[in-house]
Design a protein that fits this description.
This protein is about 55% helix and about 20% strand. The chain has about 800 residues and is α+β, with helices and mostly antiparallel strands. Among the domains are: about 55-255, no CATH class; about 430-470 and about 645-788, no CATH class; about 495-615, Barwin-like endoglucanases, CATH 2.40.40. A 6-stranded mixed beta barrel has the order 3-4-9-6-8-7. Strands 13-14-18-15-17-16 form a 6-stranded mixed β-barrel. The longest helix has about 55 residues, at about 640-695.
């Protein structure tokens, strides 16, 4: 081993605490980059593989009922590659072991599994349905697992007013339901909503739709225009009650998974940059300190014949070796984290095969970025070592010229104790170094704030959606629009304390060159069982005239209050109307349009219709009402607010807990690395000064107070700065992560800031203990020896 290599290893062992701190920061940055990059690629690859293998459609269309011969007509449209027609309907289920009624979506499949169809079925367990057995169904995997059902079990369903016993023969999945959620809901409830695939002939018979269909899917030929195909489909099926064709980008399941992938991509950019920036800072101050304390060694090396390149590479090794160690540890940690995160995603999304891909490209890119950061951090110190002439290096540093500072003036100098004046004077004389230390510690605080921001945002989301906005216990969704007289049926139910109805009318909204397929929700009141509440938890009233749009929908259409929208009704008389935009509401979930139900009935030109009922029920009579709901005809679905909240809490708890633990751990590593390195470097620089003070009569406690008090002041100064940076980062995250499906409310709890404060204080205390142990064990004689 060469002499310079031995010197390098010896020095690294001597500085092992500081170098391990640098390696830990690099490892955190690499692990985040590797894990999130591999997760993003794995989700994309699994999605594309699933879509391709099971032929996920490009365009979708729902109608009331259309003749089957239109399938051939659609197949002849220019740009259409393949077409599949189906029958789908939502029904009420009576699930064994479940007190509340559940909702099932019945989807028709061919009796014989021959030619490939779009949105094909992946059979996870059991078998395919047999011809001539209309009672056989294949149920979705999450529903069966949540209810502890297996192939061979029976389940009851109310189909078109008739109760039927269904035999589950298989467990399946479809690319159409990667995110399996009940229509009208945003959060999955695996116990109370499931998809069932059933014989086409059986559904035709049960729904009196022989020779017809109500659901169409198609794929596009290469280079085909989706917009042109959708336009022709809308013209072709307008007379059959079409709700308007839409592309894959508007399909609910695909939109959720695409948004999730986008969020992962944002995290790839955000967190690693913070850690690499801190690594640059740490390496810079550590190497500058090494060069400053080894001036005489540099002179000797150059005098012995070592070239500038040899000296430069030698000191570059102080940066590259801990970076290499961090890269190895970070890669292994990233692979482990990535696999764990994929297991969590498997709970949210239903892939036929969710494969984890660990890519060497991600590792290579992260390592290259880390070494570039290390080189950037070491460059200044290495340049100063290379440019230092031997004769100058042999001389000690020129004494710094000091002048009295602000706190050295009368009468402050007599008020402050000597140790405090020493601390303040040192901070005042090294303002840039102190400012950088504050900035680095504040980044750790900011990561804690931003990491828990999503927790606060989701908590506000739950508070608004499940407490303030929705005050009903049960939502009953009708299969078809019902006349207003249906209200008397619910009024006569024993146990129904309060009822409220709404109408939902599909329309196409247009303003100038922009248009959007959307439903208008007609409400009886904005202060009833469903209230209109924005993401800041403020209640909003329905406008006296016109329509109320969510802010995001208004931005998409390019309208403001006072503008006039062109409205084309897609069902019924298909009337064209002009409607005033009466206001906007910044809601958390989805895109919505609200107006008074009486005004909506007038615009639709009919006697009024109801699509669903909100009910507040007597909890003591809940079991009796559940039995009634299970047998109720004409119902497409029933949602229990309490059950939906419990399901959401159960689903979200694991992911939130995991992400909080990861971010907290990484922020602790970051804070410890900065605080510990700052204290260790300060100890190295001031060891002679502190030892002199010991000789002059100061106690170990007093010199510990001087050194650690300085670090405590830097940490306390960093906390409010970190709060501000964390708030700014959270604002960026809220903006970047928000989409049409949901908008994260910008809200923080006091616990968030308290949590960050406590974590940083604990980490600083632990690092202070480590430095104090080294400080109290200083060899005064050795430290005070001169080097001349």
């Amino acid at each position: 081993m060469k002499q310079l290599q031995r010197k390098l290893l010896r020095d690294l062992l001597h500085l092992k605490g500081q170098m391990l701190a640098v390696a830990a920061v690099v490892a955190c940055g690499i692990s985040v980059f590797v894990s999130m990059s591999s997760v993003k690629y794995s989700l994309e690859a699994s999605r594309e593989r699933y879509y391709s293998r099971y032929r996920f459609a490009d365009v979708f269309l729902q109608v009331k009922s259309a003749p089957e011969f239109y399938r051939e007509t659609v197949s002849r449209i220019h740009g259409v590659a393949s077409v599949t027609t189906r029958i789908t309907t939502d029904v009420t289920l009576d699930v064994p072991g479940l007190d509340e009624p559940a909702t099932g979506r019945l989807v028709s499949i061919p009796e014989y599994r021959g030619a490939p169809v779009l949105n094909d079925l992946f059979l996870k367990k059991g078998r395919y349905i047999e011809p001539g057995k209309p009672e056989e169904v294949i149920a979705s995997k999450p529903f069966l697992e949540a209810n502890n059902l297996v192939p061979g079990d029976h389940i009851s369903a109310v189909i078109n007013g008739h109760k039927k016993e269904l035999l589950i023969v298989g467990m399946g999945l479809s690319p159409e339901y990667i995110y399996e959620v009940q229509p009208g809901a945003f959060f999955p409830d695996k116990r109370r909503f499931g998809v069932f695939w059933m014989s086409r002939k059986a559904l035709e018979s049960a729904l009196d739709m022989t020779g017809g269909f109500n659901d169409l899917s198609l794929t596009l030929a290469y280079g085909a225009s989706e917009k042109d195909v959708i336009m022709q489909l809308d013209n072709l099926f307008r007379r059959y009650g079409s709700l308007g064709a839409y592309g894959r980008s508007e399909q609910l399941s695909d939109r959720f998974i695409v948004d999730e992938i986008k969020q992962v991509g944002i995290q790839i950019t955000f967190l690693p940059l913070v850690f690499l920036a801190v690594a640059v800072f740490l390496l810079n101050i550590v190497l500058r300190r090494i060069v400053a304390t080894q001036r005489d060694q540099i002179a000797v090396l150059k005098a012995m014949g070592y070239s500038n390149e040899d000296v430069g590479l030698h000191y570059l090794g102080y940066a590259m070796i801990p970076t290499a160690v961090g890269a190895i540890v970070g890669t292994a940690l990233g692979a482990w984290l990535g696999r764990g995160l994929m297991n969590i995603y498997a709970d949210f999304y239903n892939f036929a095969e969710l494969v984890y891909y660990f890519r060497i490209e991600d590792v290579a890119l992260s390592v290259i970025l880390s070494f570039i950061a290390a080189l950037f951090g070491a460059l200044g110190a290495v340049r100063s070592a290379v440019m230092l002439p031997p004769a100058e290096a042999m001389r000690p540093d020129s004494p710094v010229i000091y002048k009295p500072g602000l706190f050295d003036r009368e009468p402050l100098r007599h008020i402050m104790p000597v140790p405090v004046r020493i601390i303040v004077r040192n901070l005042e004389r090294h303002q840039w170094k102190s400012a950088l230390s504050v900035l680095m510690i504040s980044l750790a605080v900011a990561i804690l704030i931003a990491g828990r921001y999503t927790y606060d945002a989701v908590d506000r989301m739950v508070q608004v959606e499940f407490s303030r906005k929705h005050r009903e216990d049960v939502t009953v969704i009708f299969n078809d629009p019902m006349p207003p007289s249906i209200a008397y049926n619910f009024a006569s139910m024993d146990g129904v304390l309060e009822r409220e109805f709404y109408r939902e009318e599909p329309v196409r909204m247009s303003f100038l060159h922009r248009s959007r397929r959307q439903s208008i929700k007609g409400l009886e009141s904005a202060v009833g069982l469903q209230r209109l509440v924005d993401k800041s938890n403020r209640q909003v009233n329905l406008p006296q005239n016109g329509i109320l749009l969510t802010t995001t929908l208004a931005d998409i259409l390019g309208v403001r209050p006072g503008d006039r929208l062109q409205i084309d009704f897609l069902q019924g008389k298909q009337l064209h109307r002009e409607l005033l935009v009466g206001g906007t509401i910044d809601e958390i979930l989805g895109l919505s349009a609200y107006m008074n139900i009486a005004e909506l009935n007038r615009l639709a030109g009919d006697g009024g219709a109801l699509n669903a009922a909100y009910l507040r029920i007597d909890r003591l009579k809940g079991a009796q009402l559940n039995t009634t709901f299970k047998k109720m005809p004409g119902v497409a679905g029933i949602m229990m607010l309490k059950a939906l909240k419990e399901s959401f809490d159960e689903l979200i708890a694991r992911s939130m807990t995991t992400s909080t633990i990861i971010l907290t751990t990484f922020a602790c590593v970051l804070a410890f690395a900065v605080v510990y390195n700052g204290a260790r470097i300060s100890l190295s620089e001031r060891a002679r000064e502190l030892s002199s003070l010991r000789v002059l009569g100061m106690t170990k406690g007093e010199i510990s107070f001087i050194l650690l008090g300085e670090q405590a002041l830097l940490t306390l100064a960093a906390i409010p700065v970190g709060f501000l940076i964390g708030i700014a980062l959270s604002a960026l995250l809220a903006r970047a992560l928000s989409s049409e499906l949901y908008r994260l409310p910008f809200v923080f709890s006091a616990y968030n800031f308290l949590f960050a404060f406590i974590v940083i204080v604990i980490v600083s205390f632990v690092s202070a203990l480590a430095v104090k142990k080294r400080l109290t064990s200083l060899d005064l004689v050795e430290v005070l020896k001169t080097r001349e």
